[in-house]
Amino acid sequence: MTLSETPANPRYDGLVAPPYEPTGNVAGATAEQWVRSHVDELRGKSSLLRGPFERVHVFWLAGMSCDGCSIAVLGATAPAVESLLTGSVPGLPLVLLHHTAVQVEAGEAYMEPMRQAIDGTLGEPYVVVYEGSCANEDKLSRGYWSAIGEEVDPAGAKVQVPSAVWLRRLAPKAAAVIAIGTCATWGGIPAAINNVTDSMSVADWLGPEYRSALGLPVVNIPGCSPIGDNFTETVAVTLLFLQGVGPAPELDELGRPQWLFGETVHRGCTRAGYYEEGTFAEKFGDKECLVEIGCWGPVVQCNITSRGAINHMGGCMNVGGACIGCTMPGFPDRFTPFYKAPPGTLISGNGARILGSFVRPLRLITQRKLNRETRWDRPGGVTPGGWGADHSTTTFDKVTDKFYDFLRHRGAHGTTKKAG
Questions:
Q1: Which of 68, 62, 75 is nearest to 224 (CA)?
Q2: pLDDT in tens, 340-387
Q3: Which range of residues forms the domain containing residue 364?
Q4: Using CA atoms, how far apart are residues 123 and 404, in angstroms rounded to an integer?
Q5: Which of 333, 334, 324, 330 is nearest to 293 (CA)?
Q6: Under DSSP, is residue 387 helix (H, G, I), strand (E, B) or coil?
């Protein structure tokens, strides 16, 4: 494997860990001790534990991040984070999560497992999850943009170690590196034009030839914030592959799970039918297609409209919001200004209007006929009352009905031809 071609900052060479000082916690045990005891409870239950590994470490690192990805994952339901952390998913190892917000240890007690992973003494496989973009720490002569933990330089001074440096150290032996959120997958907002951090994606930081210990490229789960279920489902698929009981996750040319990001927002949108008929919303709150008030759904690869934000509920377009392309590599620069009709709408939208001017009347004619029972059109038939509905049919209606029936029955035989 090849890491980033950018020369590593020599400031982080020759650093050593500070003296280890175990930190007490109110839980009375470390997270690792709890998981070990839980493995003992599950040992021998073949319905739950399958494969060579009973547990796997997940090191969650945060770079230039707002922590929105962490929050989004807490809403996942298929599977839920709790199911991964308690070994409730058959076939998966227990997940020992190292996350600054949930870990009961602090200080060197928190950093020690990462150091063991780097020097090969951890004893179990591990996965790296990176949230936020990677600031180019190599360009700094002093200070840092985003760091976790500290080490001691040859002069005895303590140095903050950037999250991106930890990623570079952990990546070579990781079973998989998963970038969560658009900042980690494509650079996102911290990498927007004129930023001072020279931020970039995890894949850009590690280099185009990077492959994990299992031969996987960086697995990208974009979104600002991402759908929690997209992440936990990908983690589950990756761990099944690690256990040898499932295939490698199917990724597209940009490292995204193909089954999650293979379709556009528009194809799963509940408003797509309005586009086909050439009717568009003029303001937010309208029920029609949102393309002309800034929705990029026809070209953006994302499953938010079909999966929803949390537990198949919500989602930008489902609740009236326009898609601004937050899952795409070009976000945000190539989608601004937001809430302005995309340039392609000039052609596609007007084309839909022309076609829709024919489609809508034809469908209304068909709908009127299909909203009538055959009994009502027999001699002497009476339409049951509704709230002021007009149940009469004109001569034009009768002619179009005859022509419709002719087309409907054309090519049919026997009783099928006589139906209706």
A1: 68
A2: 999 988 899 889 999 999 999 988 888 888 888 888 878 877 777 766
A3: 263-380+393-411
A4: 72
A5: 324
A6: coil
Residues in a beta bridge with 251: 257
Scored b (16 or more CB within 10 A) or e, 105-119 reads beebbbbbbbbebee
Q: Return d(Cα 41, Cα 36) in angstroms, integer.
A: 9
Structural domain contains residue 386 = no
Please report how many Cα atoms fall inside a 13 Å half-sphere around the Cα of residue 365, on the Cβ side.
Answer: 16
| Matching residue, tokens 């190892």 | 93
DSSP structural state of residue 257: B
330 neighbors 300 (Cβ within 8 angstroms): no
Interstrand relation of 126-131 and 147-152 (parallel, antiparallel or unpaired): unpaired
Query: Domain with 318 in it: what CATH number?
Result: 4.10.480.10
How does pLDDT run across 168-195, given as a tens digit for each residue?
A: 999 999 999 999 999 999 999 999 999 9
Residue position matching structure tokens 């071609």: 5
Give the CA angle between residues 62, 63, 69 to the nearest 5°.
50
For residue 63, give the nearest of 141, 158, 129, 140 by alpha carbon.
129
Alpha-carbon distance of 106 to 104, in angstroms, equals 7
DSSP single-letter state for residue 44 = T
**What pTM does this model have?**
0.86
Burial class (CB in 10 A: 0-12, 13-18, 19+), 257: buried
Cα separation, 326 vs 407, in Å, equals 46
Do 289 and 356 meet the contact criterion of CB atoms below 8 Å apart?
no
Q: Which residue, 227, 257, 287, sits at the end of a domain? A: 257
Amino acid at 221: I
The verdict on residue 317 lying in a domain is yes
